[in-house]
Amino acid sequence: MKYYMGIDNGGTTTKAALYREDGFCAGVASTETAMLVPRAGFTERDMEEMWQANCTVIRDVIAQTGIDAADIAGVACCGHGKGLYLWGKDGRPARPGIISTDNRAWEYPLRWEKDGTAEKVFAKSCQHIMACQPVSLLAWLQDHEPECLEKTQWIFECKDYVRFRLTGEAYGEITDYSGANFVNLKTRRYDPELLRLFGLEAWLDKLPPLRQSTDVCGRITGETAEKTGLKAGTPVAGGMFDIDACLIAVNAADEEHICMIAGTWSINEYIRREPVLDGKVLMNSLFCLPEYYLIEESSATSAGNHEWFVKTLLPELREQAKKDGTSVYKLTDQWVEDIPASEFCPIFTPFLMASNVHPNAKASFTGLSNYHTRKHLMRSVFEGIAFSHRYHLDKLLATRSTPPASIRLAGGVARSAVWTQIFADLMGYPIETVDVKETGALGCAMAAAVAAGDYQDLSQAAQRMSTVNPAVYPNAENRPYLEQRYQLYCKILDALDPVWDDLQKLL
After folding, report:
1. How many helices (DSSP H) and strands (DSSP E) are in the chain?
2. In this predicted model, what pLDDT tens digit does every residue of 253-302 receive, in sequence order?
3. Spatial contact of 148 and 186, defined as CB atoms under 8 Å apart
4. Four-CA torsion 149, 154, 155, 159, nearest 10 degrees
5. Neighbours of 438 (CB within 10 A)
6. Under DSSP, is residue 407 helix (H, G, I), strand (E, B) or coil?
7. Count of CB atoms within 10 A of residue 492's CB?
8. CB 500 within 8 A of CB 360
9. Ramachandran angles phi, psi of 174, nearest 5°
């Protein structure tokens, strides 16, 4: 029997999973890597530790399942987009990797907007510029660490670095690089003029050759085989940006559905045959089905806020859950269920890591009183994260001529029944999830299956390997309360907008 391995590298979590041709998940292994925060607004990781984490999860999932490595027909990786992973000319990482939540370069997009660069860039890349994109980070490094760029051989995105370590071959898979402001979306190639506009033309030759998601981009080397237990010579597909992988995994690769991914990032997306060129959405990029563009609204404002709240403010609850052999996230779900939708909870702005309204906006609770308990604050966090997704959804809906048939939900939120219901009540559309926990890894496995020649394309793989659960519908009784609080959330964002620059000066 054939199996396909999907490897998913998020901001700090690394996972490997094995899937059969019918989408059955034989096993999953995961581990954490440390997030390094050398300064406020900087988020990094040790690239060698990250590689060893990949070796560990691959080895562990093979051992856990007992599957013969010879039965693994293909491997593919996905990873977080944005960020930056530099490989040195000396055969080692040139510096720590930069994670997509990094905000060190926040001034560069503002500068490029003011001097007209952004408008010229958009005409070619069809994208607004983000502080966490490689172009912003490279500009920052050019100004602050020029010696690092001089000793760099390859400019990688997250998953392309991992694939390079697996195969020894350097490629840039196009879904990631087309979302990095490197690629002209009309020519589908790197554009020297784009690099010149950013002042980065000196580094063009460090961008690896572009490939498609389902192309074979090398094979497992003998050294990698020894470290991981994979069989040398196993084909490794190009893989894809993790948001493409999730959209494929939830079988939303058509124009009828919107996909929401609620993980560290709030990802809200759909596909269409033409990009949105009026500037009303944040990102257009090339999708893993070549005939489509991915239309994206996103920010690092989603479930990572919940994880921080639990780890930082509820340590005793985590310990108690561990002792009781249960999940702390099940307990927080119960907390939220204990607070009815009709009860007012403070309005939470989920900007612990980044913002989608102002580059310097920070998290806050508004409307807190001595009546409120930690349960109320937990519901505030659940709702605030949903509010941020809704903020992005409203922008996406304005670019569509027809409403979506449903929203397909992936990420940690999709594993919470109460949170999924909040999303349905607030968005006003049926919410569907899929019967798989690791959607990113499943999307990668589909790419591996196509690269191995076992499916014609990713659409066929998704039809065979993805199972959609029954829809969760909006609750007509709860919806007005959520809508009222969302409108208040928007007013709070407007009211706080003048505050953030002054706050940044103090920081």
Report:
1. 19, 23
2. 999 999 999 988 899 999 999 999 998 898 999 999 999 999 999 999 99
3. no
4. -140
5. 22
6. strand
7. 17
8. yes
9. -75, -25
